[in-house]
Amino acid sequence: MRYLLLFSLLLPLLSCSPRLDPFGTETGDYLASFDHYAINVENLNRSIDFYQQVFGLDEVHNGTGKENIRWLSLGAGMALHVIETDRSQLRLQKGVHMAISVGRFDEFVEHLRDIELPFETWQGVALESNDRPDGVRQVYFQDPDGYWIEVNNGRILFGKPALP
User: Fold this and answer.
1) Given this model, what pLDDT does residue 32 score?
2) Are residues 120 and 141 in contact, defined by beta-carbon separation less than 8 angstroms?
3) CB 148 within 8 A of CB 96
4) Helix (H, G, I), strand (E, B) or coil at 2
5) Is the pTM of this model over 0.85?
6) Do 87 and 145 contact (CB within 8 A), yes or no?
7) How is the beta sheet containing 148-152 ordered, strand by strand?
8) Domains of the chain and any CATH numbers
9) How does DSSP classify residue 116?
10) Residue 9 phi/psi, 5° resolution?
11) 108 burial class (0-12, 13-18, 19+ CB within 10 angstroms)?
12) Cα–Cα distance between 120 and 118 in angstroms, integer?
């Protein structure tokens, strides 16, 4: 009888507890995942040319149909939405950046040198890369509109390292 009373007192508390997986599980229908990153640019064609030259991104179907927007694939169903619009209220800083992981980091850094795109470490040392505390190598640079981009050599995902 005592256990039944205790259970009846605890039941309301247990039923009001927050869900531990508010966005679903790995096998659920509602797993949160990255979809796209949108940037506002001054010159749409210049920005598209930049991202295609630096990263070799393919242009994908623009579902909006608007001429001031173009979409580039970031792989795995993710996209970069490039939007030509007013940028007067933007404040850009290095701490707010898009990060892209590449499998062949040294080759990518050489590519940056070949196309003469200035890059730096997190600390601001020009034309060098640095190691994060977790051992991942990285560089930073800005696109034609001043957006900061980090490129790194891969993070450890689900216990398996990305390509070296």
Assistant:
1) 72
2) yes
3) yes
4) helix
5) no
6) yes
7) 97-101, 148-152, 137-142, 130-131
8) 34-85 (3.10.180.10), 92-157 (3.10.180.10)
9) T
10) -75, -35
11) buried
12) 7
Smallest Cα–Cα separation from 73: which of 64, 82, 65? 82
**Local confidence band at 155 (pLDDT 50, 70, 90 cut-offs):** low
DSSP assignment of 39-90, as one string? Answer: EEES-HHHHHHHHHHHH-PPEE--TT--TTEEEEEEETTEEEEEEE---TT-
Number of residues that make up the chain: 164
pLDDT in tens, 28-86: 555 677 889 999 999 999 999 999 999 999 999 998 999 999 999 998 889 999 999 99
> Taking a C-beta distance cutoff of 8 angstroms, is the pair 49, 63 a contact?
no
Handedness of CA 90, 91, 96, 102 (dihedral sign): positive
Rounded alpha-carbon distances, angstroms, from residue 47 to 62, 91, 151: 16, 18, 17
Coil vs helix vs strand at 107: helix
Per-residue pLDDT tens digits for 96-139: 999 998 888 999 999 999 999 999 999 999 999 999 988 899 99
**Residue entry with tokens 């560089």:** 139
